[in-house]
Design goal:
Layout: H1 2-19, E1 27-34, E2 45-49, E3 60-63, E4 69-75, E5 79-85, E6 92-97, E7 102-106, E8 113-114, E9 117-118, E10 126-129, E11 132-135, H2 137-140, H3 148-153, E12 158-160, E13 166-168, E14 171-172, E15 175-178, H4 188-194, E16 202-206, H5 214-217, E17 226-230, E18 237-246, E19 251-260, E20 264-273, H6 282-287, H7 307-313, E21 319-336, E22 339-362, E23 367-393, E24 396-418, E25 423-446, E26 449-470, E27 480-482, E28 485-508, E29 513-532, E30 538-555, E31 560-575, E32 581-597, E33 600-612, E34 623-626, E35 629-631, E36 640-654, E37 659-671, E38 675-681, E39 684-690, E40 695-707, E41 713-730, E42 733-750, E43 756-770, E44 776-792, E45 795-808, E46 811-825, E47 829-836, E48 844-851, E49 855-863, E50 867-876
Parallel strand pairs: 1-7, 15-17, 35-39, 38-41
Antiparallel strand pairs: 1-4, 2-3, 2-5, 5-6, 8-9, 10-11, 11-16, 12-13, 13-14, 16-17, 18-19, 18-50, 19-20, 20-21, 21-22, 22-23, 22-49, 23-24, 24-25, 25-26, 26-28, 27-28, 28-29, 29-30, 30-31, 31-32, 32-33, 33-36, 34-35, 36-37, 37-40, 38-39, 40-41, 41-42, 42-43, 43-44, 44-45, 45-46, 46-47, 47-50, ...
Length: 877
């Protein structure tokens, strides 16, 4: 009966949307275009596009008269973008809202050029134009850059990780475009690390990015930031292949291709190596999963990364062998303005080996223990997403999103223990995960009003198998005996079925104000089943229902801009073994933005959200997690979790003094998550989840970039501080685990138009840990580096040296790293000799000694050795 009611509701809403297609409102916009002195500009082109990059068909246009006045009529869209151009002036892009009736537009004169020399003065290489920040990449490039990531690293305020993940102002970039084309929706980092540096002719940050879809106009696009990489207009296809090998059977291969056509685009990136280099960033991995959120959630859908997935993407420090491969495919095809299809595929495979040895001496009992731990992991994952947008008219849009993912993880661990008793152990764990989701959104735009309906459904499943053989008699007696060995064989499966129905609308009000509403119903059904050869077979089932009603009021123009999203959430959780739990929560999502100028702004945010505890934490039967760890029946009573988050962000750009300043702070508090109460009995550790689990997290982050007068040198200062407090419990004693980490970094980069350039800097970091009984552990880390870049004729490369020292709490470690790269380029061929960790080519062994009041522990583990590699690259344009 309930399903029929939902279907009937959706049918009525779709009928209203379709029937309203035939009614429309024609709006009119008048304005005047002037220069810096207030004089009118005649013959300026004023064009209206549905997207900020003018990639879609023009809606309407006008030309200014002798008084600089223009009139645009027959405007039948809720949101659009004005593109204003005139010879001798900088082009301007600004957002249009249907509530606007008139506007005054000022165009700035272009820089005066004398032959090949640009009169710059204190030229910073950065310009602000509306909501865009434009970089003159030639001002920052030195010619020694190898790929696009190297170019972006030199731009002020830009941070690029080794895997190609881009941040600006300390925040992750939402979308990376090439000449306005979305060709890197999946695995953008691999593309940036593979494309050659000389394809970049410009770059701009779009702080108010809009992809031109009607669905996007329902969300607060002010918070979506895109990086648009500009190339030469003649670029349609480029591809580069790199392959190389080195001593000790080391290898590396890359293939990167980019094709941009009139009706579509295609990009591919293939990378494989056994050098220990990370290929795929955690952010790109998460970004490959499509967004299934609606207006009530701000267009955000949550995702949790498992321990196995995290280890695949960011291997632990004791990994000494790592073979990693990844393939990224992106395709887009738009046969007409009404239909747009995008496909993204990700394949990743990683195989790694780890080893460590620990020796502990306990003063009180004079007991000495030692264990060797050897682990081999083999992880594979693949995902695909398809987005189809059909817009039969400029008033109706149907958006379909499909996502599928398969993952397979396996780990084999062998451990030997010596102490009062000896123990040999072999543990095999296999994990298989499947995820399939589908959503369909129908959006209608009727003048100043937009309406939408969204339906999402999916299924996730996970199977985990554990097989352990152990010769220790310390394990519980109920373990199965196999040929004199204690054996554990367990099977754990979880299934999740979900669907969500949402409907809402948005009205445009005068002066940039708007009002929106949304109603959403979420239904989640979880099943947990455990089979154990030493414990009883058990199953449990949980159903989580959520009803959300939201009201959204926002203002997107002027000095003061804000967004207030207030929602009332009704939660109900039913379990097969317990009575239902219900609650009504007030949630909110607010934003306050003070835009003092295009170069200076302050942003304040605050939010509260409610979710459910994982069913696995609420199981009322024991589950084997590992050879020495059992999850006991849960004692959690409240299944609801609430999280409060607040942030502040300030930005200042001063072009005259070459100054960029970014300051941000965040605070979050989570209440009600499951608290793991651990008890240790001999070898076996028993873990019970109970009510609690409160967690607090706070961070401050500041970045200052300052050009040193007329010198082509940039000084960069970064300061950061994080503090976390997590509730913990051990042997019935509750305490808080606190981590306090201040960090400071300063470095200088040069951009001389000469053979050599330098990057020199240092870092200080202190980590302070406080756990049970007030025990503290402090570690200090010092780092310094000197990188020399050079380019001469067909040669270019770099020489790198870095030193790191860590000490504190009985721990002291010094690390030196020497690396280099030398390449020789011909027309399409490039020969490269490179190396890293040259002081540890054959092996890279680490030794840590830590002391406390009751013991001394010596840890020995193996890390990835260095490499010396020769490679050959072929480029096709």
């Amino acid at each position: 009966m309930k399903h029929k009611l939902h279907i009937k509701t959706i049918g009525i809403l779709l009928y209203l949307l379709c029937s309203s297609m035939f009614s429309f409102a024609q709006e009119r916009l008048s304005g005047k275009v002037i220069d810096d002195n207030g004089k009118p500009i005649a013959m300026a082109n004023v064009m209206l596009y549905p997207d900020s990059l003018a990639k879609q068909s023009i809606l309407t246009y006008a030309v200014t008269d002798n008084k600089g006045i223009f009139h645009l009529s027959s405007i039948s869209v809720h949101h659009a973008w004005l593109h204003v151009k005139s010879i001798g002036y900088e082009s301007l892009v600004m957002k249009y809202d249907s509530s606007q009736l008139s506007c005054l537009i000022t165009l700035h004169a272009k820089s005066q050029e004398l032959g090949e020399v640009v009169v710059k003065g204190n030229y910073s290489g950065i310009k602000t134009r509306g909501d865009s920040i434009i970089f003159d990449v030639n001002h920052f490039k030195t010619g020694a850059e190898e790929n696009v990531s190297d170019v972006l690293r030199r731009l002020p305020g830009m941070e690029v990780s080794e895997t190609g993940k881009v941040k600006y102002e300390g925040k992750a970039i939402d979308k990376i475009l090439v000449n306005g084309n979305d060709v890197m929706s999946t695995g953008s980092g691999m593309m940036l690390n593979g494309l050659p540096a000389d394809v970049v002719s410009g770059a701009e940050i779009l702080r108010n990015w809009n992809d031109g879809t009607l669905a996007n106009s329902l969300r607060n696009s002010d918070q979506r930031t895109a990086l648009n990489i500009k190339t030469s207009e003649s670029l349609r296809f480029t591809s580069k292949l790199d392959a190389g090998g080195g001593i000790l059977n080391k290898y590396q291969g890359k293939l990167t291709s980019l094709l941009i056509g009139k009706k579509g685009s295609f990009s591919a990136a293939l990378s494989s190596n056994n050098l220990g280099k990370e290929i795929l960033s955690l952010e790109d991995y998460i970004g490959s999963i499509m967004n299934f959120g609606g207006l009530s959630s701000g267009g955000v859908s949550q995702m949790q990364i498992s321990e196995e997935e995290s280890a695949m993407l960011t291997p632990p420090s004791n990994v000494y062998r790592n073979a990693n491969s990844a393939l990224i495919l992106n395709g887009a095809y738009a046969p007409s303005n009404k239909l747009d299809i995008k496909i993204g595929i990700l394949l990743n495979k990683a195989k790694m080996n780890a080893f460590d040895r620990n020796n502990s001496f306990y003063f009180a009992s004079s007991l000495e223990t030692e264990y060797n731990d050897s682990t081999e992991k083999d992880n594979k994952t693949g995902s695909a997403n398809v987005r189809i947008k059909w817009q039969p008219t400029n008033k109706l849009e149907i958006l379909s999103s499909t996502f599928a993912k398969l993952s397979d993880y396996s780990a084999t661990q062998q451990m030997t223990y010596w102490g009062n008793n000896s123990m040999d152990l072999e543990e095999c764990k296999k994990l298989n995960k499947k995820d399939l989701r589908q959503s369909v959104q129908v959006t209608g735009n009727f003048g100043k009003t937009s309406l939408y309906a969204l339906m999402t459904f999916g299924r996730k499943s996970q199977e985990e198998k554990l097989n352990v053989l152990n010769d220790s008699l310390l394990l519980p007696t109920y373990y199965v005996q196999e040929a004199g060995l204690c054996g554990i064989r367990s099977y754990l499966s979880t299934e999740n079925y979900l669907y969500a129905l949402e409907a809402g609308g948005k009205w445009s009000l005068p002066e940039g104000y708007s009002m929106a509403f949304a109603f959403r119903h979420d239904y989640n059904k979880d099943k947990l089943h455990a089979e154990d050869y030493s414990l009883d077979d058990n199953s449990t089932e949980g159903i989580y229902k959520k009803l959300i009603g939201s009201l959204i009021f926002e203002k997107t123009t002027g000095l003061l801009r804000f967004k207030i999203n207030a929602s009332l959430t009704g939660n109900k959780y039913e379990r097969s073994t317990e009575s239902a739990s219900s609650s009504v929560r007030f949630n909110y999502n607010s934003l306050l933005r003070l835009v003092f100028s295009p170069k200076s702004e302050l942003i304040l945010t605050g939010s509260r959200e409610t979710s459910q505890i994982e069913l696995s934490k609420m199981a009322d039967f024991p589950v084997h997690l590992a050879y020495d760890r059992i999850q006991m029946p849960s004692s959690i009573h409240s299944p609801f979790v609430s999280k409060d988050s607040y942030s502040i962000h300030y930005r200042l750009i001063n072009n005259y003094s070459n100054l960029l300043l970014f300051v941000s702070g965040m605070y979050s508090k989570t209440k009600g998550d499951g608290l793991a109460d651990a008890t240790q009995h001999g070898v076996t550790r028993k873990q019970t989840y109970m009510d609690g689990g409160n967690e607090e997290w706070m961070s401050l982050h500041g970045v200052v970039t300052k050009g040193l007068g007329h010198w082509p040198v940039d000084a960069n200062v970064k300061v950061a501080w994080t503090n976390s407090c997590v509730a913990s419990s051990l042997n019935g004693m509750r305490f808080n685990t606190k981590v306090n980490v201040p960090k400071g970094e300063i470095y200088f980069t040069t951009r001389f138009k000469s053979i050599f350039n330098f990057d020199i800097g240092g870092l200080y970091k202190k980590s302070m840990y406080t756990s049970y009984a007030g025990k503290e552990q402090d570690n200090e880390q010092y780092e310094a580096h000197l990188y020399t870049y050079f380019k001469y004729d067909h040669f270019k490369g770099s020489i790198r040296y870095a030193i790191s020292k860590t000490n504190g709490s009985g721990l002291e470690r010094v690390s030196n790293n020497v690396g280099f790269q030398l390449s020789y380029s011909m027309k399409r061929l490039q020969l490269t000799l490179s190396g890293d960790e040259l002081l540890h080519l054959h092996k890279n062994n680490w030794l840590n000694i830590s002391s406390s009041s009751y013991s001394t522990t010596t840890s020995y583990y193996m890390r990835m050795p260095g490499y010396l590699l020769f490679s050959c690259g072929l480029r096709i344009d």
